[in-house]
Amino acid sequence: MKVLVVGNGGREHALAWKLLQSDKIEQVVCVPGNGGTATMERCQNLPLAVNDFEGIGKFALEKGIFLVVVGPEVPLAKGITDYLQSKGLMVFGPNKAGAQIEASKAWAKALMQEAGVPTAKAAVFQEAAAAKAYVQAEGVPIVIKADGLAAGKGVIVAQTVEQAETAIDAIFQGQFGSAGNFVVIEECLLGQEVSVLALTDGLTIRPLLPAQDHKRIGEGDTGENTGGMGVYTPTPIATPELMGRVQTEVLERTITALRNRGIDYRGVLYAGLMVADNGDFSVLEFNCRFGDPETQVILPLLDTPLEDLILACIQQRLGEMPPLTWKPGAAATVVAASGGYPGDYETGQVITGIEAAETVGAIVFHAGTKLNSDQQIVTDGGRVLNITGMGENFQQAIAQAYTGIKHIQFSGMYYRRDIGHRVLKTK
C-alpha cells in the first residue's frame, strides 16, 4: 500500500521510518517532508503546504494513496480529516470537532470537568483586567496559557504577579496569534510531567509506552519552554498502578465524554500529566496527535506493526486487536537545536556527521532540515535533529544517543547534556 504522511518534523520522519519497516508498505510520501524523508529509500517528499487540503487530496486520489496519516495539530484543527474523508480517502487523525481537544484549552478544560477527569483548578478570561484580578486573588505561582495552538510555547509558569500580568498582556496583545483570544489561568501543580499517548477508534482506547519529555531549553530544566529538548521511555514514574488509573480515570472517561458530545474520535489522544510525589496525578492538557519528540522513542520500541494499529483505529476494530507488543529495554532521544532556539535562529547551516552517528547505532530522525540544491542536508528549523538511542536500560539508551550526537556538527548547534537526569539518578 501507499501511505501519505502529512508534516515535516521529527515525528513525521519517525512515522515514515516505522511504516517503511513493513513489507506491506510500498511507498511513503511526506508532505512536505524534510531532509531525512527526502533521502530515505521508498520515500519521497511532495512540496505542498500542510494546509493545502485540495492539493493533498488531488495527489492522493491520482496516485492511489491508500492511507493518509496526519502528523501536526494545525491541519487537524483546520479540518483536514473531514476534507479528505469527504473525498473518499482513509485518514488517521481526529476530525475537526475532535481536534478541539488541543485547539482550545478552554474547550478541553470544560470537557475534563464534565467527564470527571482529574485536572487543575482553572478559569477562562476574554479580557486582561479580569484575568489580572483573578491572579491577584489566587496568588502565585500560577500558570498562564494562551487558549489555542501555540506550538508548545503558549504556557507561562509565573512565579510573581508581575510575571503573570506580563504574560496576560503578551497573550492578549497577540504574541501567540489567534491563540490569544482567550486566556486560561490554572493553579500551579508540582511534580513530574509524563506523556501518555493512546490510540483509539472512538470506542476502545489503548495507551502506548509512557514517556517523559524535557520541555525547558536549559539544563536542570531551566529557561524557556520549548517543543521538547529530549525524551525517554518507558518512564518509571508511570507505574502499572498509575497507568491503570490513567486508563479508567482519563482515557476511557474522555472518550466517553467525546462520544456523549456526538464526536467520533479516531486517532491519537495524548494526555499530558503532572504526577505528584505521592502518586496522584492531574491532566495538564490534551493533544490530538502523536507527540514530538515522544514518537521518536515510542515507535522504535513498538513491535506491533504500526499500519495494523492505524487501520484498526480507522475501521473501528481496535478492540479486536491482540495486546500491543514491545521490544524490551528503553529508548531516549536528544534534540540538536539551532543556536538561539526557542527565540530567533539562523537556517541553512550545513550538517555533517549524520552517517557517523548512525554507524555507532543511533537513529537520527530529522526535524528542521532540508536537502538543498547541492544535495547537502542543511538546517531549516529550531529543533533540527532527534538522535535516538536504544538499550537494555536507560544508561545504555542515553549513552547511545549521546555517543551519536557527538558525531554531528553544524554551526550554532545546541543540545542539553542532561537528558534522562531523573532516571539516571534513581539507578
TrEMBL record:
Keywords per UniProt: ATP-binding, Ligase, Manganese, Metal-binding, Nucleotide-binding, Purine biosynthesis
Gene Ontology biological process terms from the UniProt entry: 'de novo' IMP biosynthetic process; purine nucleobase biosynthetic process
Domain ATP-grasp: 109-315
Coiled coil location: none
Gene3D superfamilies in alphabetical order: 3.40.50.20, ATP-grasp fold, A domain (3.30.1490.20), ATP-grasp fold, B domain (3.30.470.20), Phosphoribosylglycinamide synthetase, C-terminal domain (3.90.600.10)
UniProt-listed Enzyme Commission number(s): 6.3.4.13
GO molecular function: ATP binding; metal ion binding; phosphoribosylamine-glycine ligase activity
Annotated protein name in UniProt: Phosphoribosylamine--glycine ligase
Species for this entry: Sphaerospermopsis reniformis
